[in-house]
Amino acid sequence: MAHPKIALIGGGQIGGTLAHMVGLKELGDVVLFDIVGGLPQGKCLDIIQGGAIEGYNTQYKGTNSYADIAGADVVIVTAGVPRKPGMSRDDLLQINLKVMSAVGEGIKNYAPDAFVICITNPLDAMVWALRTFADHPPHKIVGMAGVLDSARFRHFLATEFRVSVEDVSAFVLGGHGDTMVPMPRFSTVAGIPLPELIKMGWITEERLGSIIQRTRDGGAEIVGLLKTGSAFYAPASSAIEMAEAYLKDEKRVLPVAAYVNGPYGIKDLYVGVPVVIGEGGVERIVELNLLPEEKAALEKSADSVKTLIDACKQLDPRLA
Ligand code: APR
């Protein structure tokens, strides 16, 4: 059977890591697109030579032409600029909005049936704009944020409790940024929710609060250390998990930035919610019963996404 075709738009740190992971996991053949001549070609040549050692039979094509993504089953978008120390994700808006316009055009012309995963920041606003530019069906285009944010939360909790990260599940709602909403009630160690673990004396409320704050600042912490760019290994793993759920029709329940128009009282926004991902793309949005304070936090987060989307509309009248 033919391998699925996976187009990666942006061949930088995340794009290159994604390309490598697709080979290692034998998920499909890769087309790596970038505007910089030689960059995707060089990365593909490097990665494919590793196949001789790792044993993957993946086909790789580095390109500067959108025509090469034709018929892609999955498109993962990392094109744009990452943060530098002192920058917020929102500072990237103006530059990356223009990039989304070009990428949207490419997807519209060559990959209208693909499942699209956007990673470019500021995530929730960029995926909203990309959907509009590409005129893509909302259930076939999502943003990667919640999987990464909850992975960070899980890592910090597992370290704190000295238990395997495999036994920690964590839930995060809302936008990717300072207003993200970690959900202790739905975050567990082997099924035991965090509020119960507080009662059991495993952690104090204050300590949990500081872990939640570190999760919110998880991306900035890495930017501060790297100084020249932002996180790329865990973001790539997160997007691969989402792509795999679609390609293998796994019906995974994952937190993603999905198009929400009704659930949670949210209208026409991309925001982080739990969804079921299978062969239909986003097959279902899981609507939780939220406590008043959780609802308020989600509304605050949605408001900040809306502010960014309004800024996009100001910058590009085609979005209004
Ligand atoms: N079309 C295609 N590729 C582009 C375009 C464009 N219009 N503009 C820039 N690029 C490419 C750059 O040439 C670069 O190779 O996007 C790539 C981005 O790679 P990096 O700078 O290494 O950034 P990365 O760490 O991969 O992050 C990409 O994901 O997490 C977000 O905030 C992050 O928005 C950033 C994105």
Automatic annotation (TrEMBL):
InterPro entries with a match to the protein in the record: L-lactate/malate_DH, Lactate/malate_DH_C, Lactate/malate_DH_N, Lactate_DH/Glyco_Ohase_4_C, Malate_DH_type3, NAD(P)-bd_dom_sf
Catalysis: reaction(s): (S)-malate + NAD(+) = oxaloacetate + NADH + H(+)
UniProt keyword annotations, A-Z: NAD, Oxidoreductase, Tricarboxylic acid cycle
Key word NAD present: yes
Domain named Lactate/malate dehydrogenase N-terminal: residues: 5-143
Catalytic EC class: oxidoreductase
Sequence ranges assigned to domain Lactate/malate dehydrogenase C-terminal in this UniProt record: 148-312
Residues annotated to bind NAD(+): 10-15, 34, 96, 119-121
Gene3D superfamilies to which the protein is assigned, alphabetical: Lactate dehydrogenase/glycoside hydrolase, family 4, C-terminal, NAD(P)-binding Rossmann-like Domain
Enzyme nomenclature, EC number: 1.1.1.37
Active site: residue positions: 176
Superkingdom of this protein's organism: Bacteria
Record: residues binding substrate: 83, 89, 121, 152
Coiled-coil ranges per UniProt: none
Task of the protein: Catalyzes the reversible oxidation of malate to oxaloacetate.
Similarity annotation: Belongs to the LDH/MDH superfamily. MDH type 3 family.
Name of the protein in its database record: Malate dehydrogenase
Gene behind the chain: mdh
